[in-house]
Amino acid sequence: MRPVPAPLVESTGFGQEPEVPRFLLPERPIRSLDEYLATEIGGLGLARAVELGPERTIEEVARSGLRGRGGGGFPTGRKWSGVAAQGGTHRYVVGNGAEGEPGTFKDRALLRANPYQVVEGLLIASFAIGAAEAFIGLKARFEQEVETLTQAVREMQEAGICPECQVTIVLGPDEYLFGEEKALLEVIEGNAPMPRLLPPYEHGLFATAPQLGWTASDVEPGHEGRHESNPTLVNNLETLANVAHILVRGADWFRSMGDERSPGNVVCTVVGDVVAPNVGEVELGTPLGQVVDEVGGGVAQGRTVKAVFSGVANPVVRGDDLGVRLTYEGFEAVGTGMGACGFIVFDDTACMVEVARMFSRFLYVESCGQCPPCKLGSGEITERLLRVEAGVADDRDVAELQGWLAKVTDGNRCYLAVEEQQVVASILRAYPEEFAEHLEQGRCPRPRPLPLAKLVDLAPGRAVYDERQYRKRPDWTYAPTPVALDTAGVTPRAVAGSGYDASGAGLGGASAPAPSPGEVGPAAGPTGGASDATE
């Protein structure tokens, strides 16, 4: 066996800043199993886990302080031990790579850079909790990532690395909710991405115990005994990518990065009104403003940062809070969450009413409809924001907007309605003067197209956004072409002038012309923001 390596320190390429360890995104992509085994990590993480045994493996992961990188930040070791302690006929592990959060590209970047560390982390998790089988969920449209991951799994199985482990790659739809862990299990079982009620550790894959009422899955052939709920561990791919490094180099090495409660590195995406959209590995504890500058190249000359969002799942970070450090606690202190570190930046030319409308419409369209207050409420909120942005709203619209924000989360079975409530309410609180301007002037004072940063591809300085999202309807079908209609008193001219991307009014879908497909790249100049090209 190869000796355990000493901690490595490499340059991040971040200007003159002190060097920090970089291990998740290697400078040169790992293209084969031979290349991975030639590194100081490849294969040694699983060997170390076998040496330690399941219980001590979980203890080492817990001691490292690793927290989930999918957005919630739950302690990974505690999650593993909880699933391992659950009763049940079988346990399963699921790697969540159904990356659909706008502004996020980290999991695809990891799979392009080194899919083998993800698979090894998955195998270690399976060993630690005694899983019968492991799954990885990816969107079918992630063709490059599907190819690299399939190659990695095949090579590791053919090489005899954990030959008794069964790993299945499940390709799913493009819906946002595919990434919600309870909906992800539904897709693995062959169903639509509709979140179930109970979490995976209580009602896991192929569970034969009823979730509600009297409906349950058929028992597998040869099953005997009482029905069980098959507790299932769901981890984000970035979380799993850290595991082999921790076991080989040790928990203390991992804790040498970041801070006490948020140790390690994270993979950040920075897009929007920045000069050079990109993805990069960053040490936790780095100020957010520094991340925007060093990963995304900062905003265009003459412009300032007005707002930063971690996807559409968290409240806004105002431009005057860019000193907040990249830790779970730091973001909580300014009233938001770090999420999956997919940062969408808006400069001082952006209309925050339009940002609220654009985010609200995305969530409305992606809501599954199982919880009526979520689907109906997000649609009503989107319609009110559309009227405010177009300059035709009145006091009744504002009152109805506030009323729906208060009740959109009633009976929610997943987090989408909470996202709707938090992100829209935070913009209302942070930028009340912009809403007042729209009402008083009867128009948008900052008319400018704003693309929704749902990423199709990302390379240094070049972001490609999903133009199909502009045509997506609330029933998850797609209109043939976006067509501008006069809806709720909003004229096509007002809609187009405000940069609308698709149906904003709700009931049936008024649409505006979608921008031509394309890429967002370097800034055009100080008057047009950092990215004047749209999808």
Profile the largest sheet. 5 strands, mixed
Strand content: 5-15%
Radius of gyration: 23 Å
| Overall SS class | alpha/beta
How is the largest sheet built, in terms of strand order? 6-5-9-7-8
The total count of helices amounts to 18
Distance from first to last alpha carbon: 50 Å
**Low-confidence runs:** 1-18, 483-535
Shape: globular
Instruction: Give the mean pLDDT.
Output: 87
Description of the molecule:
- With 535 residues, the protein is α/β, with parallel strands linked by helices.
- It is 36% helix and 12% strand.
- The chain has helices at 33-37, 44-52, 54-64, 76-85, 106-113, 115-129, 143-158, 181-188, 237-249, 251-255, 288-296, 328-333, 352-366, 372-390, 395-407, 416-430, 432-441, 492-497; strands at residues 92-97, 133-139, 167-172, 232-236, 265-272, 278-283, 305-310, 317-318, 342-347, 455-459, 462-465, 519-520.
- Helix 13 packs antiparallel against helix 16 (416-430).
Question: Summarize this, please?
Answer:
With 535 residues, the protein is an alpha/beta fold.
What are the main properties of this structure?
535 residues, alpha/beta, five-stranded mixed β-sheet, 12% strand, globular, disordered C terminus
How are the SSEs ordered, and which strands pair?
Layout: H1 33-37, H2 44-52, H3 54-64, H4 76-85, E1 92-97, H5 106-113, H6 115-129, E2 133-139, H7 143-158, E3 167-172, H8 181-188, E4 232-236, H9 237-249, H10 251-255, E5 265-272, E6 278-283, H11 288-296, E7 305-310, E8 317-318, H12 328-333, E9 342-347, H13 352-366, H14 372-390, H15 395-407, H16 416-430, H17 432-441, E10 455-459, E11 462-465, H18 492-497, E12 519-520
Parallel strand pairs: 1-2, 1-4, 2-3, 5-9
Antiparallel strand pairs: 5-6, 7-8, 7-9, 10-11, 11-12
Helix pairs in contact: 2-3, 2-6, 2-9, 3-4, 3-6, 6-9, 13-14, 13-16, 14-15
